[in-house]
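Researcher: Structure prediction, please.
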Amino acid sequence: YTHLEALGRLLCGLAPWLELPADGSPEGEQRARFAALARRGIDAATDPVSPDFMNFSQGSQPLVDAAFLAQAMLRAPGALWRALEPRVQANVVAALKSSRVIRPGENNWKLFATTVEVFLHRAGERRDDALLFEGLAKHRAWYVGDGMYGDGPEFHWDYYNSFVIQP
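Model: Predicted structure follows.
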């Protein structure tokens, strides 16, 4: 799982920077270089014939990391999604759809499934409304006030509100 975890979480963090407008500054040149490398990584990670194809469906952890990759492309649609070749876009869609076999527990994982569905919808694909709306409904029910959500029916204080639930 670690490969998809590294890719998804790294790109999720870099996405807002990668999405900044192109410019001729040294930073802008680096940003363009890193965006191109990110797209090459996405290609290798989602191409089923690539030796670097990543696991999107075996075990449960890939649901989390597929959602971080989806969130990265939602945060940087120009740099990370629309700039992909159609072949790569099709591979990304297939890889993310393959994560649908993983059923989230009664916790923040519901939002991971929701995030994948939001991305698929934004990409023009048919979404799974059950996965999309279950995460939203559960978190609405788990709201405890002051911008905080329970990580499931029981509230506990951890970093998930800022790292998963709010984004």
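Model: Strands lie at 143-145, 148-149.
Researcher: Thanks, that helps.
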